[in-house]
Amino acid sequence: MEVRIALLGEVTAHVRGQRVELGPAKQRCVLAALAVDLGRPVSVERLAERVWGEDQPRRARATLSSYVSRLRQISADVRLERRSGGYLLVADEDVVDLHRFRRLCARADRAEGDERAAALLTEALGLWHGDPLDGLDGEWAAAERDRLEQERLGVECDLTDLLLRLGRGEGLVAELSARAAEHPLDERVAAQHMLVLYRAGRAADALEHYRRLHARLVAELGVDPGAALRELHGRILNGDPALTAGAAAKPAVVPRQLPAAPEPFVGRDDELDRLDAVLDRSGGTVVISAIAGAGGIGKTWLALHWAHRHLHRFPDGQLFVDLRGFSPDGAPLATHSAVRGFLDALGTDRAKVPVEPHAQAALFRSLVADKRMLIVLDNAADTAQVADLLPGTPACTVLVTSRNRLTGLITGHSAHHVPLDMLADDEARALLADRLGAARVAAEPAAVAELVGLCGGFPLALSIVSGHAAGGLPLSALVADLREFGLGALDDGDPEASLPAVFSWSHRALTEEQAELFGLLGCAPGPDIGLPAAASLAGLPPARTRTLLRELEQASLVTRDASGRYRMHDLIRQFAAERAASLDSGPALRRLVDFYLRTAHAGNRLLHPYVTPIELDPPEPGSRPHPLADDATALTWFDAEHACLLATVDAAIAHGLHRAVWQLAWASSTYHFRRGNRHEQLMLWRHALAAAEHLADPDVRILAHRLLGRACADVDQPDEAMRHLYRALALAEDTGARADQAHTHHALTWSWIQLGDDGKAMEHATRALEIHRTLGNPAWEADALNAVGWCAARLGRHDFAREHCRAALALQRNHQDRDGEADTLDSLGYIDHQTGGYQDAVDHFTAAVALYRALDNTYQAVNTLDRLAESLRALGRPDEARKTWQEAESLYRAQQRAEEADQVRQRLAELDAAAERV
């Protein structure tokens, strides 16, 4: 293909290998929004929503037309056509990497043999080059990005299953360790990790992983591991020999997905009787009861209450899904996503799940055929969303809730309609009595009567009111609030679609301290917040902050996830931000920025003990940096706060906190280097340089130019890297900053190596060493010695190279510089390999890998693994080389380093070809 469009990473287009300029971010978003639905028209309204969300410009249609006109110039192989009120992208599937990825996955599903399927999935995953839709912002891009990342995780797990069946578990240990850390509560990932550990002879580690997961599930979710994982644990305990031959067999799965029954539940006797009669008359055949009614009327409560009363009628299990048909925070759940969720719940081997949605629906119907199951489809948008979720045989009972009547379901599928109306007055009083106690309701009869009338028989409104009253607020005060704020949000019969008034009731019931924290949380940058950060935001001790957060959680204004972090629903967050407009949130934001900056600064020094610390401003009053014990806890903290750190940089930019911007970039540098977050590192240092231009501090500009240059080099932008590095060098020479000169020469060394000019690289490495020897910092001198040794080795001066690297190693070991020691061991291994000392090379590379792993530096560890495999092959140990390269390829793929992974795949192919010739 002459043209390629990339969505699985930064959104780009290439024509005949040359990158095409796609214009501003919104124009690139238009291309992505059409490319995702390749070959299918996207209406102008939906396209505008994807590009701008709700905040659309006045001339959105004209702007879209302009964007499309410019994008039409990409290539003749890509056509953007106007169709029936919208646009569509017409191109071959292979043009767009997302659709090529899915096509390869579909071919893998149809492939004959696991080897071929694994190769196809490996090729498919090799198309990913970072976060999907990178460079785009907005709600649609974020939601699509999350969905695509889940799709990638599923394929990664499918590939792992194939490799396990092929007996390649040992090479997956590092990859699965990283995946298990990223998805700590995913039982499928946990099972794969345990199995590869067991096959690698690490049964104790596998059992320990299960113990930690078990403890975490119980502590955070109150549940035990599922049956399949418990069975695998037992087989590992018993040393089941079958585990070394293939993956553990899955037991029959009986899903129990129903949420808890609502308590208390009052009234609805007529509707419950109708549902009972429908089930009894049908004698176990398919029953579709479309329970229609307005939002907040109690449809889901009725469905769950009835379902729990009849669990004995469904011995083969119960499935439940919220179809989000009228969710205020996103589009309805796609039918194929619901089907896929059901397939997982039924224990389907993901490797056997077809890619095409219609084939998945057919598989689902086959799995539930003749089973006595209950399927609850909650909050359906329309009949089309439900149709593929209906079983094809007369055994299951299906319960559908929707705000619409779903006429197509009633007429086309013989559904029984059970409409819901408001609660009667006596039922509403009974609900309040159950929530507040009969004595309290009897004590204020006039207030109760008025509350019942004002709430209009809506169970949701009554529940919110009773929740506020449970804190001791007199019912008469609640009546006064309702008179003042009204129930206008419920006039359209859909309180979830217009909830500000209801939120106002919740807000009015808060104490002053709770209300202030609620408002500040709405302004906090990032998708969530941990307790330490929230304490600094509030300027309160952690214990008091924890109490307030729990109170807000009880008021349903915040939620706490499995990791203990707090989140707000988007609408509640927006409401909270509006409330915060009356607060002076500037000091709170400065406290939060100070918290992130000081904690990250301490973390950076733990990860890189020999880095020169930067000078921070005096701490903000009330800021409480989080203590970090060692480099492992620092990495854990950075992992948890990564998204919030990036958002904090954006907030600092928006509020003109220029010093904080570049300091946050500096404090995050080692973490991003360890994790291989090259593009994020580049983005941060671009922001840092822009901030530095506002400051009258040449040292900051030198630092920003130098580290931006390094970041450019790391993403293969050598020309821009050189511009910034030579600018940094010139500034350092003008100011006489000797250390900065040396550091910049050091950075230029690696940039010239990247450009293939080892002579130039040697000049800069030598100059860096000369300066560092005058500065009295042994860690810097050792780094420079290693750089000179590396350049000398590339120039063929091996004895000279070895001498310098050994000198570097002695300094690093004397000062316990483990990062530097690992780098120099890698250099010595390279020198040994170049001079034919392959066993010495293996020893040096192996020691370097061990150090990198101890530092949790997988980014550099994989480079050394690659070189280790080459030395093993040279020693005539192809099996060990193969295992090492397989691990390297997996790590390269996990780090989205497709070019390196492809090179390793070629070396593996060469090994296989050589083995066949023997």
From TrEMBL:
Residues annotated to bind DNA: 1-91
Residue span, OmpR/PhoB-type domain: 1-91
GO molecular function, one term: ADP binding
SMART domains: BTAD (SM01043), TPR (SM00028), Trans_reg_C (SM00862)
PANTHER family xref list: TRANSCRIPTIONAL REGULATOR REDD, TRANSCRIPTIONAL REGULATOR REDD-RELATED
PROSITE patterns: OMPR_PHOB
Source organism: Saccharothrix tamanrassetensis
Any one of the GO BP annotations: regulation of DNA-templated transcription
Pfam families hit by this protein: BTAD (PF03704), NB-ARC (PF00931), TPR_12 (PF13424), Trans_reg_C (PF00486)
Protein name: DNA-binding SARP family transcriptional activator/tetratricopeptide (TPR) repeat protein
Similarity annotation: Belongs to the AfsR/DnrI/RedD regulatory family.
Domain of life: Bacteria
Entry-linked InterPro entries: AfsR-DnrI-RedD_regulator (IPR051677), BTAD (IPR005158), NB-ARC (IPR002182), OmpR/PhoB-type_DNA-bd (IPR001867), P-loop_NTPase (IPR027417), Sig_transdc_resp-reg_C-effctor (IPR016032), TPR-like_helical_dom_sf (IPR011990), TPR_rpt (IPR019734)
Keyword annotations from UniProtKB, A to Z: DNA-binding, Transcription, Transcription regulation
